[in-house]
Description:
- The chain has 14 helices and nine strands.
- By secondary structure, it is an alpha/beta fold.
- It has two domains: about 1-85, Arc Repressor Mutant, subunit A; about 115-320, Rossmann fold (3-Layer(aba) Sandwich).
- It has a seven-stranded mixed beta sheet with strand order 5-4-3-6-7-9-8, sandwiched between helices. Strands 1-2 form a two-stranded antiparallel ribbon.
- Helix 12 packs across helix 14 (about 290-295).
- The longest helix has 25 residues, at about 125-145.
- It is globular, with a radius of gyration of 21 Å.
- Bound molecules: S-adenosylmethionine.
- S-adenosylmethionine binds near residues 163 and 184.
Amino acid sequence: MLDVYMPMMKSSAIISAGRLGLFEALATGPLSVQQLAEKIHSSAKGTATLVDFLIALGYLEKQGELLANTSSTQRWFTSLGQVDYTPGLLWTHEAWPMMGGLAEAVRSGHPEKTLWDAMVTQSHLGELFSSYMAAFASDLGPDLLKHIPVSSGQHRLLDLGGSHGLHSIRFCQRDPQLSAVIVDLPSALTDTDATIAQEQLSERIRLVPGDLQEMDWGREYDLVFYLSVAHNHTADENRHIIERISKALGQGGLLVIHEYLAEAPLDALDAAFRLTLLIETGTQTYSYADYCHWLTLAGFESIERIDLNPRQKGSLILARR
Ligand SMILES: C[S@@+](CC[C@H](N)C(=O)[O-])C[C@H]1O[C@@H](n2cnc3c(N)ncnc32)[C@H](O)[C@@H]1O
């Protein structure tokens, strides 16, 4: 029972801290329980009870009579840290009730309603999911810049499933000759225009809302990003999409895939992610051999795999036409 009870309590305490803005309230310095309770508009009793558990979990620490974030909490869950994954806590709060239908998804083999359909009727879901993806993207950004070679002769970038736009923005900022087209579902693009405008890139990055499987993306691209999108499609769909990417790229063009590759045997994180996909989208992760097969069929050459560090960040696959 401890395997069931403790993860539930741990997860809900950390999520609640995120929802209450508790970690952010401590970001600028330690506070007493009373000061913290006032800052997060909560009762002293409730705050003290939550804080006790967060200290036991190693998320907060005592500094004399005051409370402070541990260095890891400050780093991952505040706006002053390296990456703020608070949107991930807010997203997990939404994902939690969805997991109540897991037994039914196992029985039927597919979700009752996909995440994308839920986002059409509950618009806040799309916004929240994109902010969560943006947190991942700011974590992953330096790896992409390091490993993806862009030459001065490459001008046109197609970012399929580009969502928040951060990847396109980062590359357009580094490589001034680049312009980008971002294709994604309307639910994922609610804030993207504003982010692009804030970075003064509206003239170089264009949004194309819609289902990437149904639309014409244009041609003669030098670079295509298919970043964390393949696991949202079936094997047949990926084979077809990669074939279309091949046709959309000019000779010598580069396709970059970012994915969480399915390796045998699956570790607990990989297997958990596949279970999430079963209930959210009805799709799955694929092996490196699957990608190599689809890429070769589509005429790609010099396929290269780069495993990121730490391993939980997934892998890049670079393939040239
Ligand atoms: C896991 S997120 C990755 C977002 C971004 N590429 C990144 O790496 O941070 C997957 C994205 O693919 C988009 N997506 C999934 N299926 C799609 C489809 N059929 N057409 C367009 N976009 C799609 C989702 O809306 C979402 O923004």
